[in-house]
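Practice problem: predict the structure.
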Amino acid sequence: MNPYATYKKQSVETMTPIEVVIKGYDECEKQLNRAIHFIEKKDFYEAHTSLDKASELVNAFRSALDMSAGEMSNNLDSLYEYFYRQIITADTKKDTVIIEEILPQIAELKDAFVQISVLPRDDMTIMRQSILAGAEG
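Answer:
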Protein backbone atom coordinates (compact mmCIF):
# COMPACT_ATOMS: atom_id res chain seq x y z
CA MET A 1 0.00 0.00 0.00
CA ASN A 2 1.36 3.42 -0.88
CA PRO A 3 2.11 5.90 1.94
CA TYR A 4 -0.82 8.19 1.09
CA ALA A 5 -3.31 5.31 1.17
CA THR A 6 -1.88 4.14 4.50
CA TYR A 7 -2.19 7.66 5.95
CA LYS A 8 -5.75 8.02 4.64
CA LYS A 9 -6.78 4.66 6.12
CA GLN A 10 -5.26 5.51 9.51
CA SER A 11 -6.88 8.95 9.60
CA VAL A 12 -10.34 7.48 8.96
CA GLU A 13 -9.82 4.76 11.57
CA THR A 14 -9.00 7.37 14.24
CA MET A 15 -11.98 9.66 13.49
CA THR A 16 -14.86 10.05 15.89
CA PRO A 17 -18.26 8.91 14.57
CA ILE A 18 -19.35 12.50 13.97
CA GLU A 19 -16.13 13.25 12.07
CA VAL A 20 -16.88 10.26 9.83
CA VAL A 21 -20.37 11.67 9.15
CA ILE A 22 -18.91 15.10 8.30
CA LYS A 23 -16.36 13.48 5.99
CA GLY A 24 -19.23 11.57 4.35
CA TYR A 25 -21.12 14.82 3.75
CA ASP A 26 -17.95 16.37 2.28
CA GLU A 27 -17.60 13.44 -0.09
CA CYS A 28 -21.29 13.54 -1.03
CA GLU A 29 -21.01 17.24 -1.90
CA LYS A 30 -17.86 16.54 -3.90
CA GLN A 31 -19.53 13.76 -5.89
CA LEU A 32 -22.62 15.86 -6.60
CA ASN A 33 -20.47 18.75 -7.81
CA ARG A 34 -18.49 16.33 -9.99
CA ALA A 35 -21.76 15.03 -11.44
CA ILE A 36 -22.82 18.56 -12.37
CA HIS A 37 -19.47 19.10 -14.09
CA PHE A 38 -19.68 15.83 -16.00
CA ILE A 39 -23.29 16.36 -17.06
CA GLU A 40 -22.37 19.80 -18.40
CA LYS A 41 -19.46 18.17 -20.30
CA LYS A 42 -21.84 15.45 -21.61
CA ASP A 43 -19.69 12.78 -19.95
CA PHE A 44 -22.65 10.75 -18.78
CA TYR A 45 -20.63 7.73 -17.69
CA GLU A 46 -18.61 9.77 -15.19
CA ALA A 47 -21.75 11.66 -14.14
CA HIS A 48 -23.45 8.35 -13.39
CA THR A 49 -20.41 7.15 -11.44
CA SER A 50 -20.43 10.28 -9.27
CA LEU A 51 -24.19 10.14 -8.71
CA ASP A 52 -23.94 6.46 -7.83
CA LYS A 53 -21.30 7.25 -5.19
CA ALA A 54 -23.45 10.08 -3.81
CA SER A 55 -26.49 7.80 -3.58
CA GLU A 56 -24.41 5.15 -1.78
CA LEU A 57 -23.33 7.77 0.77
CA VAL A 58 -26.93 8.87 1.34
CA ASN A 59 -27.93 5.23 1.87
CA ALA A 60 -25.05 4.87 4.35
CA PHE A 61 -26.35 7.89 6.26
CA ARG A 62 -29.81 6.31 6.36
CA SER A 63 -28.56 2.94 7.53
CA ALA A 64 -26.54 4.54 10.33
CA LEU A 65 -29.57 6.29 11.85
CA ASP A 66 -30.65 5.22 15.31
CA MET A 67 -34.39 5.06 14.68
CA SER A 68 -35.06 4.71 18.42
CA ALA A 69 -33.96 8.35 18.85
CA GLY A 70 -37.41 9.50 17.78
CA GLU A 71 -38.56 12.42 15.68
CA MET A 72 -35.11 13.67 14.70
CA SER A 73 -34.16 10.29 13.25
CA ASN A 74 -37.48 10.01 11.44
CA ASN A 75 -37.01 13.48 9.94
CA LEU A 76 -33.47 12.69 8.83
CA ASP A 77 -34.64 9.38 7.36
CA SER A 78 -37.29 11.20 5.30
CA LEU A 79 -34.75 13.76 4.17
CA TYR A 80 -32.24 11.08 3.18
CA GLU A 81 -34.96 9.23 1.27
CA TYR A 82 -35.77 12.48 -0.56
CA PHE A 83 -32.08 13.06 -1.39
CA TYR A 84 -31.78 9.51 -2.70
CA ARG A 85 -34.84 9.87 -4.95
CA GLN A 86 -33.58 13.21 -6.26
CA ILE A 87 -30.13 11.78 -7.03
CA ILE A 88 -31.68 8.84 -8.91
CA THR A 89 -33.95 11.22 -10.84
CA ALA A 90 -31.02 13.50 -11.65
CA ASP A 91 -29.07 10.48 -12.89
CA THR A 92 -31.95 9.25 -15.04
CA LYS A 93 -32.66 12.68 -16.53
CA LYS A 94 -29.05 13.95 -16.44
CA ASP A 95 -30.50 17.08 -14.83
CA THR A 96 -28.13 19.45 -13.02
CA VAL A 97 -31.00 21.56 -11.65
CA ILE A 98 -32.13 18.71 -9.41
CA ILE A 99 -28.61 18.31 -8.03
CA GLU A 100 -28.27 22.05 -7.49
CA GLU A 101 -31.52 22.03 -5.48
CA ILE A 102 -30.30 19.45 -2.96
CA LEU A 103 -26.69 20.62 -2.61
CA PRO A 104 -27.53 23.52 -0.25
CA GLN A 105 -29.63 21.21 1.92
CA ILE A 106 -26.78 18.73 2.19
CA ALA A 107 -24.37 21.57 3.02
CA GLU A 108 -26.76 22.80 5.71
CA LEU A 109 -26.92 19.35 7.30
CA LYS A 110 -23.15 19.06 7.21
CA ASP A 111 -22.85 22.46 8.90
CA ALA A 112 -25.22 21.30 11.64
CA PHE A 113 -23.03 18.25 12.28
CA VAL A 114 -19.92 20.47 12.31
CA GLN A 115 -21.56 22.68 14.95
CA ILE A 116 -22.50 19.63 17.02
CA SER A 117 -18.95 18.27 16.72
CA VAL A 118 -17.47 21.30 18.49
CA LEU A 119 -19.90 21.15 21.44
CA PRO A 120 -18.32 20.22 24.76
CA ARG A 121 -18.87 16.56 25.61
CA ASP A 122 -21.21 17.41 28.53
CA ASP A 123 -23.45 19.45 26.21
CA MET A 124 -23.62 16.54 23.77
CA THR A 125 -24.62 14.17 26.59
CA ILE A 126 -27.37 16.55 27.72
CA MET A 127 -28.59 16.93 24.12
CA ARG A 128 -28.69 13.15 23.61
CA GLN A 129 -30.59 12.63 26.87
CA SER A 130 -33.07 15.31 25.85
CA ILE A 131 -33.60 13.68 22.45
CA LEU A 132 -34.09 10.25 24.00
CA ALA A 133 -36.49 11.63 26.61
CA GLY A 134 -38.51 13.23 23.81
CA ALA A 135 -38.63 9.92 21.96
CA GLU A 136 -40.03 8.17 25.03
CA GLY A 137 -42.64 10.80 25.81
